[in-house]
Specification:
By secondary structure, this protein is α/β, with parallel strands linked by helices. The protein has 6 helices and 13 strands. The chain is globular and about 50 Å long.
Length: 256
Amino acid sequence: MNILAIGDVVGSIGCRFLRSHLPSLKKMKGVDLVIANGENSADGNGLTPSSVRYLLDSGVDVVTSGNHSFRRRESYDTYDTCEFLLRPANFPAAAPGRGFCVVDMGRVQVGVVNLMGVVYMESLESPFDCADRILAQGMPKITVVDFHAEATGEKRSLFWYLDGRVSAVFGTHTHVQTADECVLPNGTGCITDLGMTGPVNSVLGVKPELVIQKMRTKMPVRFDLAAGGPCCIGGALFQIDDATGKALSAERLYIT
C-alpha cells in the first residue's frame, strides 16, 4: 500500500498545479491513496465547497485541514456532508464535520485522522488525548495521521507517542518541508512537515513584498498569492505493509 501525503495546497494556483501533476505522479509512484491538506486551497485563506470539490476531482481521496478550517462560513455544510473532508478531531464536538474517516479500498481499509497542535495555536483538546480516544474506538490496521501543528517539538513528540500504534504521521502547517523523513523503531513512518503545494517564489505562498511590509510596519496588509513563477508540490510517500499496518519506508517528495 502506497499512501501519498501532500502538503498544504495554497489557493487556486496550487490546486491547478496539483491537478496537472497528480495523475502522472500517482502512476510513477504506484500510489493507492492520496491525502492532501486543503485548508488554504481557496484564494484568500480557508477552503470552499468548490476548492474541496476541485481537489477531490483532481485525484485526492481525503482532504484534511487545520487552523483555517472554518475561515469560510460557506464551507460549514461541506464539512457535514462530505465524508472525506476532515477538520481537526480535537476541535469541540459542536464544530461542523468530523475529525477522522475510513476509506474502504476493497482489499483493505485505511483510517485517516486529522489532529491540530496546541503549542502557539488554538487552545483545543490535547492532541495526545484525542489520538488515544480515537484509536480506542477501533481504527483500521492501516491508519495515518495529519498533525497540523506549529512547533517541531510537539510534532516529534506525537510521532514517538504514536509509534507502533499508527502506520504514519505527517506534519502540516508551516509550508516549509523538513528533511527528517524516517520510519520509527516500532514501524510508524513520519516527517515533521510536508511543505506546501503552490508558488515557489513566495513567503508561504504569499507575495514576499506583502509579508515584508507586514513584518516591518505591523500594519494590516492584504495577502495576495504570488503568481507567474514556478510552483512546487511538497509531500511524502509512505509504503505500508498491508498485513501488519507498519510503514516499510518514508520517501520525501518535492516536485517542480
